[in-house]
Design brief:
Shape of chain A: globular
Radius of gyration of chain A: 21 Å
Order of helices and strands of chain A: HHHEEHHHH
Oligomer: homodimer
Strand content of chain A: 5-15%
Number of strands of chain A: 2
Distance between the termini of chain A: 34 Å
Chain lengths: 189, 189
DNA sequence: ACACCCTATATTCCCCTGCACATAGGTCGG
DNA sequence: CCGACCTATGTGCAGGGGAATATAGGGTGT
């Protein structure tokens, strides 16, 4: 379950309440592309406590309701590390959050993990996504609705595929750049 | 349910079996970013038949198992149009498939719908996503694990946010370009 | 001859997850 | 004073959706 590792990964950096986790997901975490609603976060936290991966202390607050502040346990740290080291299989859809999740929350534990995940992702994208996508051929379609303008419709499909192609290309460029920076031993100038 | 409208939208263009729908989702439809597994497609098709939005004919095939080839009904066409005309609320995560789905499967029905959806999306992205994201501040974090290199971890968060920022920027550029092309009345040169 | 994959449909089990709602104190504007 | 909104926690319900499995004919490789 991806949400488990988002929570464990964030708790590696600092203690957080369920409410904090949601704030992160709606804020900076938006770019990672994975998000769930509050009830789900609370439910997952309960399960993670049951499993012994996280624990909490009640933080009594004067001018706000009491909060449960969660922290990572030793078992949770091991679970996160095990996930981070498990084989990474890229998703067929480049915009899926799988890679970014692995990269950030796995990679933060160990430089070798970060490098290996980026390398795997890059190889996969070069193999399956670097090719120029095919144009849809009008003769393959026979609209059931006479009012539908087939050229218009396929034009929209084409421009969306162009968006996807451009996005994927710059994604691949980012993967190459990031890989070389990681291999050089530092990521920020 | 988004899957309903993916199916209705594809059936607007041509008759398809459940298996065909899955092939499209794994192939060209990958760029739209919405995908489910086969069992879910079959389940949805059953529900759409019950609701009267689609119907099927059994296609007896010589050298392959018989296939159910689905087609759009009048009620299905109306349901798709109603969805396409309903107010569009952009998702807070730019990579969610909501916009692309609306744009392709709503926009193919009517040029005004396509223009309106792109305009709404562009306004939203300019408002919420055009700003440079903040850098994470190291003093806000207190890792529980001494082995964790906080600068390294935050560096990874930063480069992923840079990827998100670059992606969003080129997405906004695409929205502007597409809007002006749509307003000019044609999308392809 | 046998293994394996492709087309094609579908079910069962079980968990994930969104929506609506409940609770409750604090703050702020009208 | 009241409504609206923020912090902060949850519950109940219904439906979405993945993994594994079943079935079954045809083609392809070794």
């Amino acid at each position: 379950m991806l949400l488990d590792y988002v929570i464990l990964g964030m708790l590696t950096l600092r203690r957080l309440s369920g409410y904090d986790l949601r704030k992160w997901m709606e804020g900076p975490g938006r770019y990672i592309g994975y998000g769930v609603k509050l009830p789900q976060i609370y439910r997952r936290l309960v399960k993670l406590v049951e499993r012994g991966w996280v624990a909490f202390d009640v933080d009594v607050r004067e001018r706000a309701p009491d909060a449960k502040v969660y922290r990572l346990t030793e078992a949770g740290r091991e679970a996160l590390l095990e996930w981070a080291r498990s084989p990474y299989e890229p998703s067929s859809r480049p915009m899926d959050p799988d890679f970014r999740l692995r990269f950030v929350f796995g990679g933060q534990l160990d430089r070798e993990i970060a490098i290996s995940v980026v390398r795997t992702e890059l190889e996969y994208r070069l193999k399956y996504d670097a090719a120029t996508p095919e144009q849809p051929r009008a003769d393959q379609y026979e609209p059931e609705i006479p009012e539908l303008d087939l050229d218009w419709a396929l034009g929209l499909h084409t421009v969306v595929r162009e968006l996807g192609f451009a996005t994927t290309s710059s994604y691949i460029a980012w993967l190459k750049l990031t890989l070389s920076r990681l291999e050089a031993g530092r990521i920020l100038p």
